[in-house]
Amino acid sequence: MNDLALGREGTPHLASGSTTMQGRFFVVTCFGLVFLNCLTFLYHFTGSTVFNVLSNSTSLLLILWSARHVLIANERSYFYNALLTLACIFTGASYLVNFGAFELSDGLKLVSIYSFYVAGRGMAERVQPPEKRCIYVLAALPLLFKVIGHTQVYTGIEYPDVFSYFPNTNTAALYFSALFFALSPWFGNKVLVAQFINAAIMNRVGPALATIISIGLWSFFPLRPQVFVALILLACASVAAYAVGALDRLITGLNAIALIWSLDPSTVARMSTKQLIDLTGTTDMSAFFRVTHWTNIWQIYSSLGIGGILFGYGASQTGVLTVLPLPPHNDYLRVLAEYGLLNFLVFAIFVFTIVFSLKDRAAKTMYTVLLIYFLSENLIDNFTSMTLFFCYAGRFTSPKWLAHSPSSA
Fold this sequence. Notes:
This protein is mainly alpha-helical. It has one domain (5-252, 299-404). 70% of the residues lie in helices and 1% in strands. It has 20 helices and two strands. It has a two-stranded antiparallel ribbon with strand order 1-2.
């Protein structure tokens, strides 16, 4: 078995030799994601459910592919294998407790992020050039659709912010963030520049704020004189942004959120859009509805018995039980309420131990963007993004990878 060689600028690349099972895992996974996104492209372009069925089948095959590699991995991580096992047990228990009120496909998506991570960690030795080409294709497909297509799936007033074949620009921004995360060994800190361009193109506060917080967080450690200079510059930039009105949307959102503490979620749900606009003074209801919805979800979850507290009220049941027929828009709260406290503890331990295991600063920063995004979106539903994030997080935290890759931390 050949080890990684280091190319220019310390970038890991494939040493000469025949392709092994370790190399094939990432190559096949990336090709599978390209095929999946081609089917998604066709589904949204034509509206034909045939392509949706095929894309779902492809997702299932990729999950089975990762599960196979969990079993044959030659690098055993007892800690993460234990988390995967617990996630399977607790998700299965949630299914049984909520039998008949549990969307099995959603439970499978949740468990799959653990299996993709463990498989990626165990198959981390090689980097194949076709992977990078696949990631470029994944970046091109939604942009091509944006130019030549119009979604036949996301229609109506419930989808005011569609981008290509994504339901909104926040989800699209996260998709490109996952691509940058996977490319970080090749491009280093250049992916952070690309991420700012990504946030600017999507023109949303969420992506930009998550990126700024993530970069700022990992720039502070270890503390250096440059950190204090950066803080001063950031403070000056914030004052300038406030002066030109760039923070108006954020401030308006925070003011709207403050109003809900005195209102019951059911009261908000009965109010017309005009009444809400008059109440908040803004037509931007996203932050207002999110926190109102979260409050309603917490009221329902906290009123459950011990079985409900431990195992939730069932995958994909939030929109059925709450006043507003919407998913949670917060994956931490989603795991807690729909899958229960035990699943939430496993999930939180899992995602936060990964970030401290990542050594490359660019990769750590892009992964932290995901952790911040989890606070305000339903990202586990985005299969390609989650697969890329957790497959490559597994690779980037593997002892084999770290032994041959330079660290910028």
